[in-house]
């Protein structure tokens, strides 16, 4: 593609921020390698590269909660993506609307600030 | 701090998404090491670790456009932060409100979608 994205700074990966286009809520962050970005552009559905499993995956491939791409933004340094999406269900594998369901206080304490929308084992199976 | 953040996955760094608390606009993404997060918590102003310059810095130390912290969220895997802020000026060193001032089309073409609010050399000096 004509634009030169800087994959080198992150060892071949770019962070991709996922934001709900309608509500403005930040839903999650994942990493993309070149292949994940190409798949995302081609299919219109968000794909990531998993740093833990070391493989490409489509968000929602198990749960059905895919992320439909509306707009992709790149930052000034061309090393971060912001993707506005139409989410087809709650995003977090823990059962919350977003992965950012906890706030961190100055003393390190966490508070859950979202409601649990589904039980992970019912969507992802017993291994979840 | 009591919460165990996973700094290992990113070689000692966590991505931190910066979102305007009032407008919901995603302004930028930076990386934090433990020290940057501690400084952020202690001062209430966003600090990052620069991967390029390999040093801690406070956003706005040159421009005055500091990011006042309102709330910090951590994600399900405890390896990403979302920080809601009150920004004291445009965030991008290129002179835009946010660093995500360009959209990426499927064919790789970029379109500028924000208005330039300042000339970088007037804020950062001739080296900008």
Structure notes:
- Two copies of one chain form a homodimer.
- In chain A, strands 2-1-6-5 form a four-stranded mixed β-sheet, covered by helices on one side.
- Helix content of chain A is 12%, strand content 34%.
- The first copy, chain A, has a domain at 14-91: Ubiquitin-like (UB roll).
- Chain A has 128 residues and is mostly beta strands.
- Chain A has helices at 34-43, 120-124, and strands spanning 14-20, 26-32, 47-50, 55-58, 67-74, 81-87, 102-104, 110-112.
- In chain A, a hairpin with a 4-residue loop joins strand 3 (47-50) and strand 4 (55-58).
- The interface between A and B is large, with 42 and 43 residues.
- Strand 7 (102-104) of chain A pairs antiparallel with strand 5 of chain B, so a sheet runs across the interface.
Question: Can you give keywords for this protein?
Answer:
homodimer, 128 residues, mainly beta, Ubiquitin-like (UB roll), four-stranded mixed beta sheet, two-stranded antiparallel ribbon, 2 helices, 8 strands, 12% helix, 34% strand, globular, hydrolase (chains A, B)
Write the layout of secondary structure elements.
2 copies of one chain form a homodimer.
Chain A: E1 14-20, E2 26-32, H1 34-43, E3 47-50, E4 55-58, E5 67-74, E6 81-87, E7 102-104, E8 110-112, H2 120-124
Parallel strand pairs in A: 1-6
Antiparallel strand pairs in A: 1-2, 3-4, 5-6, 7-8
